[in-house]
């Protein structure tokens, strides 16, 4: 089958082309699928998208008119897809149910450590031959409290690393994970987790019940010197409320690998353009904030697993199989 793959990163391309080669012909494009680029998909029965694709009703309708019958997204998240409309149109939709949880968990700790020990600030200074330690004072994580919001596979991997630091573990989720309990985690109400934690890391999916889970009220309930890390989904944190808390001199560090309005910005070179998103511009220049461009998943192991799952989704579609990756099954 001929497959159009969009939103392909340069380092992802060889892994992707190698995985598809034995059974399918693939056309890999760096551009994401949007209303402007959807004509590129004409004639392709199968289209693979990144999480930055805009798959709303008009785009889905354009895909169907062009002959597309399968969308297989290379991510676990799928809040960018109008699944109800896809089902009405008879589209099959699949995702990647899981990949290496260690990729995101380790990256979350990378952000936390860089913020706590002022590593980025120190690196910038030493490049200018400024070797002072002023403003670089960090804290031991050992003996402090970490709050893990979402204790699935990634949250569990994050908690296991926290155990190696010798931290007290608090967790919040809709269900208790026995593996986290074995690590010594105490499950508590979310407000208590926010109140008692020195480090908070988010690992929950984005859905109506979790949208702006971290809002102005919960930010106000956190310690003034908390470190907050979000490598999960952008809409979990109210960006305006976060900026207000930072303006008040609160929060010791904020690590963001995702951002509410990242579509059309993350994964692109915007260096020659004026940044019109005032909130993002302020976050990028704030001394207590470290923003990365949705790269938490981006390891050889995780990307290989994502690509292999995507190829399986194409094979399952052709065979009429429904799997854990299926979001909208093939129409009879």
TrEMBL record:
Its EC number is 1.1.1.28. The keyword NAD applies. InterPro entries: D-isomer_2_OHA_DH_cat_dom, D-isomer_DH_CS1, D-isomer_DH_NAD-bd, D-LDH-like, NAD(P)-bd_dom_sf. Residues 3-322 form the D-isomer specific 2-hydroxyacid dehydrogenase catalytic domain. PROSITE patterns: D_2_HYDROXYACID_DH_1. It holds the Pfam family 2-Hacid_dh_C. It is an enzyme of class 1 (oxidoreductase). Keywords: NAD, Oxidoreductase. Residues 110-296 form the D-isomer specific 2-hydroxyacid dehydrogenase NAD-binding domain. GO terms for molecular function: D-lactate dehydrogenase (NAD+) activity. Belongs to the D-isomer specific 2-hydroxyacid dehydrogenase family. This is 2-hydroxyacid dehydrogenase. It comes from Streptomyces polygonati. The lineage of its organism: Bacteria, Bacillati, Actinomycetota, Actinomycetes, Kitasatosporales.
């Amino acid at each position: 089958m001929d497959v159009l793959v969009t939103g392909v990163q340069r380092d992802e391309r060889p892994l992707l082309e190698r995985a598809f080669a034995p059974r399918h012909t693939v056309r890999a494009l760096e551009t994401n699928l949007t209303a402007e680029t959807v004509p590129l998909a004409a004639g392709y029965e199968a289209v693979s998208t990144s999480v930055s694709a805009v798959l709303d009703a008009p785009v889905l309708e354009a895909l169907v008119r062009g002959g597309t019958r399968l969308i297989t997204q290379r991510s676990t998240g799928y809040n960018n897809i109008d699944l109800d409309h896809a089902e009405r149109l008879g589209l099959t939709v699949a995702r990647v149910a899981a990949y290496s949880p260690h990729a995101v968990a380790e990256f979350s700790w990378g952000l936390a450590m860089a913020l706590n020990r002022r590593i980025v600030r120190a690196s910038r200074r030493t490049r200018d031959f400024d070797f002072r330690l002023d403003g670089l004072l960090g804290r031991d994580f050992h003996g402090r409290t970490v709050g893990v919001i979402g204790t699935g596979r990634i949250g569990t991997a994050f908690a296991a690393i926290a155990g190696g630091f010798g931290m007290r573990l608090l967790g919040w989720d809709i269900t208790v994970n026995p593996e986290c309990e074995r690590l010594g985690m105490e499950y508590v109400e979310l407000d208590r987790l926010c109140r008692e934690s020195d480090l908070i890391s988010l690992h929950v999916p984005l859905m109506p019940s979790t949208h702006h889970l971290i809002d102005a009220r919960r930010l106000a309930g956190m310690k003034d010197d908390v470190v907050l890390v979000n490598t999960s989904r952008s809409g979990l944190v109210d960006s305006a409320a976060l900026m207000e808390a930072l303006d008040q001199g609160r929060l010791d560090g904020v690590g963001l690998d995702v951002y509410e309005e990242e579509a059309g910005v993350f994964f692109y070179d915007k260096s020659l353009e004026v940044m019109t998103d005032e909130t993002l511009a302020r976050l990028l220049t704030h001394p207590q904030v470290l923003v990365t461009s949705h790269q938490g998943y981006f390891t050889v192991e995780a990307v290989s697993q994502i690509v292999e799952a995507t190829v399986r989704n194409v094979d399952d579609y052709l065979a009429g199989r429904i799997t854990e990756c299926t979001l909208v099954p093939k129409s009879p």
